[in-house]
Each structure stands twice: as C-alpha cells, then as structure tokens.
Design brief:
By secondary structure, this protein is mostly beta strands. The chain has no helices and nine strands. The strands form two sheets. Strands 4, 5, 6, 8 and 9 form a five-stranded antiparallel beta sheet that branches. A four-stranded antiparallel beta sheet has the order 1-2-3-7, with no helix packed on it. A hairpin with a 4-residue loop joins β4 and β5.
C-alpha cells in the first residue's frame, strides 16, 4: 500500500515546507501469527522557503487498530539533523511495528530557520495497512 499525504505549512511565520509520505507493508518482516506487522514509511521534506531550515526534533503518534498507542520523539531523524536550503529536499525511510495489520500515524517536526525562528511542521495522519486486508 502506498499513500502520499502532502502538507504545505504556509503562514506568515512558518517557512514553506512540503512533507510527503509514502508507506509500504513489509510482508517478509511481518509475523501475523505473532501479531507483528512491519511497515516502512518514506518521508520527503522540501523547503520551498528562501530561508534555510534545520530539522531539530520529531514526534510520532502511532495507533494500531486496537487503539494501542505508541509515541516516539527525539532529536533529528535517523540520527541526522538535516539543514535544507531553498528548494532542497531531504528524504529518509524508517519503520514501525504494529500488533494489528492496520493503523495510523501522525506527528510533527520541529525546525529552526536560519533567522532563528523555531516552528513546528505538522505531518497529517496517514495510514499503515497490509493491502491484503483491504480486499
């Protein structure tokens, strides 16, 4: 399954940030009989602003179909705190393991701009789902 929500954070205090999400069910890494369902998600962040930005932290709220919630937060993403100049893109892939074959994820990134403004860029909810359950 692949889903591509896009966020464009555009107001007078937030640089123009585009966040795209693509998800995949990892059948070969999942063990449904043990309630382990593995998902990968690829995030692409593009800075459309003329001001450079640095990703400081990330926060994820992950909820499976049984309403079990996992919260993940910390510095950077995949061990990095990328700096994006005008029209630069950063892409990374990470993963989540749920006890159910479907769930949702949402969260935000905290950035600081080159002019010192700290701001949040929300990531709207996106679905994690084994495509076999959708048929």
């Amino acid at each position: 399954m692949s889903e591509s929500p896009v966020l464009e954070a555009t107001d007078s205090t937030t640089p123009d940030i585009e966040i795209e999400v693509e998800t995949h069910y990892l059948a070969q890494e999942s063990q449904p009989e043990k309630n382990l369902h593995a998902f990968a998600y690829t995030i692409t962040i593009t800075n459309h602003s003329h001001v450079g930005i640095k990703l400081l932290t990330r926060y994820w709220h992950i909820e499976d179909a049984n309403n079990k919630v996992q919260e993940v937060s910390g510095e950077g993403v995949i061990g990095q705190q990328p700096h994006l100049g005008h029209m630069q893109t950063f892409q990374y892939t990470s993963g989540a393991i749920l006890e159910t074959a479907a769930g949702i994820m949402q969260g935000h990134y905290d950035f600081v701009s080159d002019n010192g403004e700290v701001f949040k860029a929300p990531v709207p909810a996106f679905t994690l789902a084994n495509p076999a359950i959708l048929h």
